[in-house]
Fold each of these.
Amino acid sequence: MTTANNLPGAPFFGYRQGQLCAEDVRLADLAAEHGTPLFVYSQAAILHALGAYQRGLAGRDALICYAMKANSSLSILKLLAQAGCGFDIVSVGELERALAVGAAPQKIVFSGVGKTRAEMRRALEAGIGCFNVESEAELAVLSDVAQAAGRVAPVSLRVNPNVDARTHPYISTGLKGNKFGIAHEQALAAYQRAAALPGLRVVGIDCHIGSQITEAAPYLEALERVLDLVTAIEAAGVPLEHLDFGGGLGIDYAGETPPDAQDLWRQLLARLDARGFGQRKLMIEPGRSLVGNAGVCLTEVLYLKPGEQKNFCIVDAAMNDLPRPALYQAYHAIVPLGEAPHGEARSWEVVGPVCESGDWIGHDRSLAVQQGDRLAVMSAGAYCMSMASNYNSRPRAAEVMVSGASARLVRQRESLAGLTTGEIV
Ligand SMILES: *Cc1c(COP(=O)(O)O)cnc(C)c1O
């Protein structure tokens, strides 16, 4: 159970004088000023998470490419770009966001199984650092597009090390039988093909074995498998400049204790050094672990509906704001903004107003709440706002960035007029 002492996001989120705060700002004040549902991010928490990777990779030729699908809000991108990050993108829309905050194009890598020709053209024109190619068919199209544009596309092949990341099946990506990457057994042939295509220049190799990984072992296993491949590919005459180990490191939702990024990289670098790859250019693509514990979603209790079998606590945030529970049966801690509870705690099904039985935020949560109280949904910095939708014609939430004692609105609540923009009657 989440208590004041083991709150996800601590010490950047915690109770002070009985009031839940983000850094030095009371969340109740932000909810009163901006309304709910409201996402609140801690700048210090993001920089702290990044710092663990930076320390872990200190002294190496390494580039941290933030996987911006986790949260592509411009204020977060700008913060990370200014801190030296590159970006891992999966669409031309994400490319434009990265460019809009002044990201260096050479620090952008483009992942994804379904890049269109138009997306490839735009990324080539922008001069991105690398296309992380996921199939042989994509290699051929990219070469074609690059040649027609009079350019050479820098490519890496996403290989599938067939390692079990031991995470939820929807977010496990490195096993045979999912749509991502090129099978280990086919990788060498695919590299030889890539090297022979006129519009391509092979620059690296990448992998990404899954998400919300809470142990070091799958990373260590994948590392060995990828290094075996690198050895074979280079022996066949295709040199690789960089090695990209993807993202996937987990965060604290319900008391998970994933390895610290610095400690994980100490272990991985020891193996890289032992096998003679320690001086290679390294890249990583963390998403969730940079922002997940750095955000919360504030919501107001609209109605309490106690029943014979279940008690429902109906809040103003819903699956369109917080899609992870509906999508992955994910757990988010839910806590009151004021530490002193109203009356006795009882068990609640915390649900939103959307007309779907799948619209739930938390099952069987022990909370002492009254109508009008406000709650914080913790660990909501990753894969929440970036996955938010307008289902039920609900405007998307506002976002606030906190730094120390200051807070600024970084995204306005979507307007009702905005909801129908582009529609033609
Ligand atoms: C989603 C994704 C990431 C980031 O994953 P996290 O679990 O958020 O760290 C990195 N690389 C690729 C290719 C991805 O698809």
Note: The chain has two domains: 13-42+292-420, 111-286.
Amino acid sequence: MLKVNEHYLKLQASYLFSDIAKRVASFQARNPEKDVIKLGIGDVTNPLPPACMNAFRAAVEEMATTAGFRGYGPEQGYDFLREAIARHDFQARGAAIEADEIFVSDGAKCDTGNIQELFAVEARVAIPDPVYPVYLDTNVMAGRTGEYRDGRYEGIVYLDSTSDNTYVPELPTDPVDLIYLCFPNNPTGSTITREQLKLWVDFARDSKALILFDAAYESFIRDPSLPHSIYEIEGAREVAIEFRSFSKSAGFTGTRCAYTVVPKECRAFDSRGNRQAIHPLWNRRHCTKFNGVSYPVQRAAEAVYSPEGAAQCRALVDGYLANARIIGTAMSELGYSFVGGDNAPYIWIQGNRDSWEFFDLLLDKAGVVCTPGAGFGRCGQGYIRLSAFNSEANVVKAMARIKEALG
Ligand SMILES: *Cc1c(COP(=O)(O)O)cnc(C)c1O
């Protein structure tokens, strides 16, 4: 008799986006003439930068020639891309990362979900609340939690991100081994300072723990004092793995390309307490279970680092940040407090009422879709997330309607 992995049965069905879709469909049925504006999504809306598209197309054409054809590439990614990443994203910022520490993949979602396979089932895991659900659910699947009770899984150390700590969690008082951090944050849009990140790095070093740092929104950072990479912090090479993605920085959500950085010094321990390097373990996992990102996609990603590509990506992100400012200004004028939007595409708004009540209010009165904060964790109750991923015209229209409805 084949049994299932019963840890999967502990997972809570995520009704968040299906609930949203249901409420939007019902509103649309009642108001067929009204155009609904979606500021709820965590997906980009602008087309691929021309430099990426040209490189993409040229690589596809190369593949259709005898001389240019390529079969399986290196699982870790082509050197041309790994070298460009190491040079532009790290060495240029004073972070000593080498090309052979970069693992190119088809997404930061997969990588942040898969990385936990390398660690013991007994590992004690610290996860922010509110959170991008991948970190939590993949640890549930692996059996690192107990049952779900009162909105939380037993055995997880939740790191509350609230207005009291300016949405940057404090160091845990319970012992932990594996720590998930995401800055600039999804869903709150909050950022972490160098000093705050240094506290986490020192904590991980002292407690023989490891930080999994999700920097998927790094390209939205405009404040020059903020760190772009955890490796800008002294001592991080031993205690941090960083995840990056071309999804939000270059519009690759449908094209698929990301990478994970595992420095050679990065370590965990075996049951006798001996240090074990993580780099060879991740390399082994990647080569066993993954067969590389397609050549044209890697050429398209490489084009992000060309002078034209870099300028086009910067303009792309600047456009979303301009939308975020429009949203923030309107919500301030209405008297709401919020975080995010200045170095992130998300605006996390304190609604002073139940998340779903606020959601219904914005939908019914303004025809605007947000994401209820409660869907991201217990600490999200009372908040909504507005996303800057839409056209400027739609954002302007949405905020005018919200001001009319709530003003
Ligand atoms: C969008 C996003 C990613 C990127 O995921 P991909 O699989 O690379 O598209 C990673 N982490 C967070 C928190 C995100 O919001």
Note: The pocket of pyridoxal-5'-phosphate is lined by residues 42, 107-109, 132, 182, 186, 214, 216, 245, 247-248, 253, 258 (CB under 6 Å).
Amino acid sequence: MAPQGTSTTNDMIAGDLTDPAHLPRLTRRLTGFLPQEIKAIDSTIPLQSRNLWHKHQVTKFENAEEFETRFINHVETTLARSLYNCDDFAAYEATSSSLKDNLVIDWNKTQQRLTTKDPKRVYYMSLEFLMGKALDNALINMKISFIPKNNGKNGDSIKARQMIKNSLQDLGFNLEDLLNQEPDAALGNGGLGRLAACFMDSMSTKDIPVWGYGLRYKYGIFAQKIIDGYQIETPDYWLTKGNPWEIARNEIQVPVTFYGYVDRKDGDTSTLNPSQWVGGERVLAVPFDFPVPGFNTTTVNNLRLWEARPTTEFDFAKFNSGDYRNSVKEQQRAEAITACLYPNDNFLQGKELRLKQQYFWCAATLHDIVRRFKKTQRPWSEFPDQVAIQLNDTHPTLAVVELQRILIDLEKIEWHEAWKIVNGTFSYTNHTVMQEALEKWPISLFGRMLPRHLEIIYDINWFFLNQVEKKFPKDVDFLSRISLIEESSPERQIRMAYLAIVGSHKVNGVAELHSELIKTTIFADFVKFYGASKFINVTNGITPRRWLRQCNPELSDLISGTLNEDVKEEYLLDLPRLTKLQDFVDDENFQRKWNQVKLNNKKRLGNFIKQQNNGEHIINMDHLNDTLIDVQVKRIHEYKRQQMNILGVIHRYLSMKNMFKQGASFEEVEKVYPRKVSVFGGKSAPGYFMAKLIIKLINAVAEVVNRDSEIQDLLKVVFISNYNVSAAEIIIPASDISEHISTAGTEASGTSNMKFVMNGGLIIGTVDGANIEITREIGEENIFLFGNLSENVQELRYDHQFHKTNISDNLQMVLHELVIGTFSEENTSEFKPIWDSIVQHGDYYLVSDDFDSYLATQELVDKTFHSNRTEWIKKSIYSVANVGFFSSDRCIEEYAGTIWNVEPLTPE
Ligand SMILES: *Cc1c(COP(=O)(O)O)cnc(C)c1O
């Protein structure tokens, strides 16, 4: 069997040109080379094919009529339907296909431009891309200003989205209904995957040449159902009805091997010399491409997701012995590799199939990147000048080892020369300091699947430890601490984060506090060895196209109108322009409009909740303006402290009941505890017992509170099931206040905090992650901070371990109800584990330390919202005006300048 990586069954890669003779002809058409240059090259091409090419015209639709023609063509040919049996889903498909046609034309031009200009490119490797829906995003990002249909006067223009909405209306369809037909591309767990999606949007918008690389999971993150208050996971088979946004490249098949053994020439014992890995199991990687459009540019980048397929090789020995069924079965095992996204967020589950996924993806991706580089015929030393590979967390760390293997085993480059190339190419983003999330692989599992890679890791470690030993002689303790191999029981493990650091030239954290923490805690030894300059910060951001323009059209219309940017919406490309909104904070008319937008979005959320609740309203829709909508939506995790939130809700409920018991009137209770809806949403990892119990508690509290006739609608609790990007787009614009209340030092950055602020919601939060920088940008008078600081966490945890945990009266009152069955009549002890974790097991997440200040801050929130609404609205306006820093466009500029050293490649 041929060693992996030496050949592909088909060496054609879309976006590249196989025949150099084609280059000039394409170049002229697509990049506008000088005519004389073209003439010289054109003459090398036979007249016949030249004429054919010149006649050939692929064009984008550029007005309503052309869109409609394209739409009808797709209905009748692509879908083989007629307009008479075209339902909403078919219309969604035809609209998407029409838009994709335009995108693909620009995609081709972008890729041709890259081939001819050959600048340095970025490769963003992420096991997760949480893209959400594509259609509305494509409509919004599409280059604006079309000529309107019918009597369009000269100089008139209309935004693409509006034009298509009108066209669809004429054809008998409602755009919003079509948008709802699209399933979410939910190939991610939460923040990390959504960050990758926002970065792709910003890189296209900023004309940065990038290819994203990931896996095309058949099943994305599971769909969450709530049954009797419990989370039930159901498979997310998002491809049931096909996917009009992807382009299958069936003609490209990259072989990837696993297991087997290492073969070396007779007498050669050095693992540093070229060695041949003879793989045991072999599968094929087939790419699917997703065009990623930028906003108001014709740059369209590529997101390439690999799918695993069986090889066409067949075990004839088995076949001939009559074991046909088993020989087919083995083939089918290949498909398991990309079947399923692992549903853990910030938690390592060291499963063999996960490692297989990772290597499959890294091998296919590196093969693609190396192949593309080799076409340029540049010397290998120029590889880091042409290629920047960003590792999104440690999941793609095998790519470091795979490139080293390609260079020494296949390209026969000397070890140190190869390692210099590797190091100049990679950079690594760390996403957490939590021990349980740090990736480690047992040596035996790893060595069996990837025997040659294990040798290479040992050699990397050997040279690395040699350098360390030179700088810090005889410090055995230091050497064992910093080693890539952890001498742990029951077995030694590879520390993937350490490998990523050693293999990269830059390591970044994702918010200032987090980037400081990694330097002083988990990577402190590496700072001691390398110095601090290898470790930098790039604070996360979000794309304002999706998280303002797309999810909150009313607010973005109000903003663009106010800034006089109705047509071009320049602020969406330069978010700090929003500071101009500060001129309007005292404008009462503007305040009124601002509040009306929030109210409309709250109505939209109210209806969404009604839909989820079988058509019954939980929220009183008549009182929305004086109801505080308090939201916590994110993955359910003890460190994110949804338990503290729900305990706070219970405290409020008990206090209200007490007032009633002591004879207070409804109005008197309302004065102290004005109308509030607590909204929760988020998925728990399927095997995470405590997170699932927290979901059950929230639903159990909702059950009691919502049907309490005394309380009426002064307090409602809602758990929104199946939180995902599309749900976020409805929930976030509706929030008055949202909760980002992680134990200080545990949330690396958070990105939903930024989304809420961008939509005019205020924040209650701990001094953690990007909350700190948000405070700096919007002003501390516009955010509700509380709780212990990260520098005190260690000591507090230590105290809990050795002394009794101090439970305040407030917390005591609430915890008591948990164990007497107020919220679990059938099983009184159901919520005991939550009580235990705080009272008995050392309260690792410091709920007891922060609870009273949390309650006090909630009280301040109520007071501000209900007793001085104008002040509240001003805070909201100030927040949006100063959220500009958190655009992912700013992140991408920082990555491009300080890590990748790449320049934009602007069209024209
Ligand atoms: C933004 C986002 C997240 C991240 O939320 P955090 O509060 O930062 O953890 C998770 N899930 C979805 C669907 C998101 O859009």
Note: The radius of gyration is 29 Å.
